[in-house]
């Protein structure tokens, strides 16, 4: 049995009277890519926000359940402490700081991380190695980048905090297929250098190719879970999420 990176147990979340998640349990083994699939409103973003503790900004709150990272509870921490613990979210829609330069966006990503200048410089070198365009455009305003480049910047900004677990919310959303494939390759590369990944995607084909394990959320509940290969072969997943009739 692989060492657990993340363990979400029986998590229920509400936004006032709206129940967004019901008794959801998800595991990310250390070093794995785990995918969460599901249609609009299934609760995917809510799950990531509950883990990163940014849920409160949406007026959401967990009503029960627990979240542990590397064996320690993280569900009582502030969002900044979750980052410092090694769990970093890339939000849906990138949310880069449009008026700031690319370089300043990346610097902002390092603010919450532990470690000194040497570590930050090494993280920046790694980000530039993964995304040379971010070095070329360092002084440009982030708002001037293309959608794909902004997704690279959002990923790069998260990497500046040197995460051991990345939470990715729909990284391929709105991107042309080639760019989506490029982002997927980079996620694999990031994972290969030791970062676990919890990937939320509407693009099930990409997610199931990257992940070792996947969960399907339907109206706030885990409807299916298992090895990604098995889910990719299941009639229900093929019909509902892969567009195969
Ligand atoms: P999408 O892909 O459309 O973002 P999702 O699977 O990420 O969908 P969530 O955004 O987690 O789904 O939403 C789950 C449920 O919670 C939906 O019914 C949604 O309407 C509701 N919800 C999400 N955010 C809020 C909020 N701030 N206030 C009230 N209800 C919310």
TrEMBL record:
Ranges for domain ABC transporter: 6-244
GO biological process: L-amino acid transport
Statement: the UniProt record of this protein carries the keyword Amino-acid biosynthesis: no
Pfam families given in the database record: ABC_tran
Superkingdom to which the source organism belongs: Bacteria
Family matches, as InterPro entries: AAA+_ATPase, ABC_transporter-like_ATP-bd, ABC_transporter-like_CS, BCAA_Transport_ATP-bd_LivF, P-loop_NTPase
A Gene Ontology molecular function term of the record: ATP binding
Swiss-Prot/TrEMBL keywords: Amino-acid transport, ATP-binding, Nucleotide-binding, Transport
Classification via PANTHER family: HIGH-AFFINITY BRANCHED-CHAIN AMINO ACID TRANSPORT ATP-BINDING PROTEIN LIVF
Family: Belongs to the ABC transporter superfamily.
Record's protein name: ABC transporter ATP-binding protein
Species annotation: Streptomyces lunaelactis
